[in-house]
Amino acid sequence: MHMVAAADMPVMSTGLVMRIQSIRIDDNGNPWPLPVVRKVEEEIVKEMTQEYEYLWALGDKSFTSAASRLLLGGESMAIAEERVASIQSVSGTGALWIGAKYISRVLNYNTFYMSSPTWNNHRSIFECSGLTDAREYRYWDPVTCSIDMEGLLEDLRNAPKKSVIILQACSHNPTGLDPTRHQWSQIVDVLEVVNLLPYHERGLLPFLDCAYQGFASGDIHQDAWTVRYFEKRGLEFMCAQSFSKNMGLYIPLSLNLSFYDVIKSVYCD
């Protein structure tokens, strides 16, 4: 909390203020939603299109469908073949929690792997969801200042059956270092081999965390490449998709659907 307070202290009269886990730009240090978000909010108010009925259990269908297309692309075969299940949740943390809870209670997984290092809330979210065997796979090599691919792949190969593998789709937190496309193909090669096992012996379940779509390259489609590549390769996976950062929407308000995030499971035949 002392770091947050220090980060909030003004250091210059103008410019972009980078705060822990958020981006603030006005003089009062408030979050900055994108102009397009404000424009859409105004249009909703003017056109009176906002509905005040209860949402169904899985959330607003138009929102989850649009979010899925943004993540997987308009040419997604998984969407066309109706192999995508989407759930609207409260924040990216909520998306991760719902997915982890499902994995724990329904799929009976207990082990999960996260990169070393990773976002510090990954561990607590998954442990509170019922997955108590927390492990790490090697990621950052402080000597070479690069990804330890040899160690990463070795750790994935040695992971026990029925393990969840948390992978950050882009803008890795906290290192900022993402695998190259070739390195992602190596990761998927390992996951693909393990998942050829019969379902009751199923090995590694990838859980992609997409919290910064658009922040790695400046292109939302390029930053979704990893998730789309997983679909193209035919893997079954989950993905928590957040709009907190790329739309500047941090506090979920009821009935404002842009303030929510989505968790998706892609099921492959």
TrEMBL record:
The lineage of its organism: Eukaryota, Metazoa, Ecdysozoa, Arthropoda, Hexapoda. This is aspartate transaminase. GO terms for molecular function: L-aspartate:2-oxoglutarate aminotransferase activity; pyridoxal phosphate binding. Homodimer. Residues 27-250 form the Aminotransferase class I/classII large domain. GO terms for cellular component: cytosol. It comes from Timema shepardi. The keyword Transferase applies. One of its GO terms (biological process) is aspartate biosynthetic process. It comes from the Eukaryota. It is an enzyme of class 2 (transferase). Its cofactor is pyridoxal 5'-phosphate. Its EC number is 2.6.1.1. Keywords: Aminotransferase, Pyridoxal phosphate, Transferase.
